[in-house]
Sequence to fold (197 residues):
Amino acid sequence: MDSSCSHKQRIAVLRLSALGDCINAFGFIGGLKRAHPRHKISWIIDARFASLFYNHDKDPLVPLYPLDFKGQGLRALLGLRQELAHKQFDCLLNLQTSIKASLASTCIHAKVKYGYDADRAREGQRFFIDKAVPSPQNPHVLAGFLAFARAAGLGEVEPYWDFALQDNERDYAKSYFEHDKIFLIAPSSAKAQKNWT
Fold:
């Protein structure tokens, strides 16, 4: 276990996509916020998914830096570099192994950059990080995220999802699902090769 982030205040989390992984990243960030309420946690995320993490007043549920690779390509990195030019983080938790995420990590000024170990890293992520996070026994993506907290000296973190739902939304959901069991399948993906149908 490292202590690079344990007594520090500023943490950047980098997870751009995909949707399900961003939902898990939000639970991971929520757990970090609950375990370390004084820490300032910011999230660099794909602009396509960022709108899910705003409340009804259009305030972000966690400070967000949306990155529009799809619309702007590599120019998006210039915007991110400018936006973060005067920000300094104590550590970066790079939860994504894509080359896009690794390139984005070069725009983030952090004293220590954590990424995946050799078992999970791909697309050259190891060249963009300072410390590799050991793979957990559990292969689930969320277990992998939680391993980052342990490796960075942030201890055991319990995932927590707080979407700041209003009472009427909770009541509607309870009335809709109260008597029936619901089973949902999302058979399609942004990438055709990952579609089930």
